[in-house]
Design a protein that fits this description.
16% strand; alpha+beta; globular; 499 residues; 12 strands; five-stranded mixed sheet; 2 domains
């Protein structure tokens, strides 16, 4: 299936061109005149050039749904967004009055990949990000036309926002979360993490790939090239529906969990729990689906938190096995810890979703959905109980007295074995997952593909470099240098607990 798609993409790119008065190559375009080169390869005989083969399906699994066409790591989709001037100025004004605005503006979107182009009128565009949300134009006031100084920023492109039919999708995909590589000059951290979840069979993780992004405000002489972005699957009702066979249902309670979401009833019984009612409020626990039954969904969430917090011993062990796929959860968390995700549930009570596959207050299955993986792979911080995301002991990743779920599971020998075995599987050289040589090859392959297109009209984030975020507390970590003293993947493998 993957081989056929790859061949089809190459053939299609040679025979189909689209555009407004110009030919446009679709899959692997020619490099621009001034290409941005990837980082130099260390001259080290122990650091071979590896192919970084694309991820294959799990045994017995076929990737036949349309998301595989959209989120294809073998392609580099082009996304062009055109916004009316009055809509764009409305967005700038709204941001100036409320920099957390979730206001959508109307736009027209083109999505082009592998010889196919989709044009969607009346799509929606809004800004995204928490602490990373930015004004797309520098300064204040209205749009400045050709004098605009642009900023990289995160967007949500909602093709289905204003007209809800299948025409307003790309093969059924309704939303595209477009993230610039903030504080990640390697242009790979979030992509690597979501790709690793998929390689390891964690089906609750979002799909992702690279894309190229342009934006044009009507009346401007030219469009603005924003550069290479991460393109992520949105976690919403559609996300659940596309996995309904595995979730067991798709019509129930999906919660987005922000900073402070400990699932600890003693701490969070009075937490801000709500849903988007248009007021602009941020909630610690925000219901994203089934909002018409909010009261029952809230009661279910609080009941789960109460039992998670109060149960202990064999009572907890047996209860959690009834309401959760423990093996899936611990394999998910093994990936989380292996990539050094410190801004997470266990350490920082942040950045995850949960889904209950029933409205029944007691009879349901609970799923943990990982989210937001830009601050990983050696971008480390002094936070929670941690100050070193590579070397910190994986069995002590967070404070269980604050965030009880994972620590309470690991108190049992059988559950701890699942988690520790998963860490070893991830770091196993033969598996080619988190092992440093396989990871270096994979990252180099991606960087080589995107490097000619990184230079962009914002003038920001113009080079691929192998270093963590400048604000991080561990500046020595590297992804491509194989030194055992600085390579994140090697140091992570060295941190594994004894079996």
């Amino acid at each position: 299936m993957r081989l056929f798609g790859y061949i089809f993409a190459i053939l299609s790119a040679t025979i189909l061109t689209v555009g407004c008065g110009e030919d446009r190559t679709l899959v692997f375009p020619e490099p621009p005149e001034k290409p941005v080169t990837p980082p130099d390869k260390p001259d080290d005989p122990d650091d071979p050039e590896l192919p970084g083969e694309p991820v294959e399906p799990l045994p017995g699994e076929e990737w036949g749904d349309e998301r595989d066409f959209v989120f294809d790591m073998e392609a580099l989709p082009e996304i062009r967004v055109t916004v009316p001037l009055d809509e764009w100025n409305a967005l700038l004004a709204e941001y100036d009055s409320n920099n957390k605005t979730d206001m959508y503006i109307r736009c027209r979107a083109e999505f082009t990949t592998k010889g196919e182009r989709y044009e969607i009128a009346d799509a929606g565009l809004r800004l995204k990000g928490n602490t990373s949300r930015r004004r797309p134009e520098q300064g204040g006031g209205s749009h400045r036309g050709e004098h605009t100084e642009w900023n990289h920023c995160h967007f949500m492109l909602n093709l289905h926002k204003f007209v809800k039919d299948e025409v307003h999708t790309v093969r059924g995909v309704r939303k595209l979360h477009l993230k610039w590589f903030k504080d990640d000059s390697s242009y790979c951290r979030e992509i690597y993490c979501y790709d690793l979840f998929r390689r390891y069979g964690v089906w609750t993780a979002a799909m992702s790939s690279y894309c190229r992004l342009w934006l044009r405000v009507e009346g401007d002489a030219a469009e603005t090239y924003y550069g290479v972005y991460a393109m992520l699957e949105a976690v919403d009702d559609r996300f659940v529906k596309m996995r309904k066979e595995r979730f067991g249902s798709h019509r129930h309670n999906l919660w987005k969990c922000r900073y402070g979401a400990s699932l600890n009833f003693d701490r969070d019984a009075d937490a801000r729990i709500g849903f988007d009612d248009g007021s602009g409020q941020d909630y610690t626990y925000e219901l994203k689906t089934n909002t018409e039954n909010f009261a029952a969904a809230k009661a279910q969430l609080l009941s789960f938190m109460r039992q998670l917090t109060s149960r202990s011993g064999r009572d907890f062990h047996d209860w959690i096995a009834q309401v959760c796929d423990v093996e899936l959860l611990l394999r998910t968390y093994a990936v989380n810890v292996a990539v050094g995700m410190w801004d997470d549930y266990w350490n920082n009570t942040n950045n995850f979703y949960i889904y209950f596959n029933s409205d029944d207050p007691d009879r349901y299955e609970f799923f943990f959905i990982p989210y937001d993986y830009d601050n990983t792979l050696g971008t480390s911080s002094s936070c929670g109980v941690q100050d070193d995301s590579a070397r910190h002991p994986p069995l002590e990743w967070g404070d269980t007295s604050v965030a009880p779920l994972i620590g309470k599971l690991l108190a049992f020998d059988d559950y701890r074995k699942i988690y520790v075995d998963a860490l070893y599987e991830l770091c196993d050289p033969a598996a080619g997952l988190l092992y440093y040589e396989s990871s270096i090859g994979r990252i180099r392959r991606w960087q080589a593909a995107i490097a000619p297109y990184v230079e962009n009209d914002t003038g920001q984030d113009m080079r691929i470099e192998d270093r963590p975020a400048a604000w991080g507390n561990r500046q020595e970590y590297r992804l491509l240098d194989p030194s055992p003293n600085t390579n994140f993947f090697r140091l992570k493998a060295a941190s594994l607990p004894a079996r």
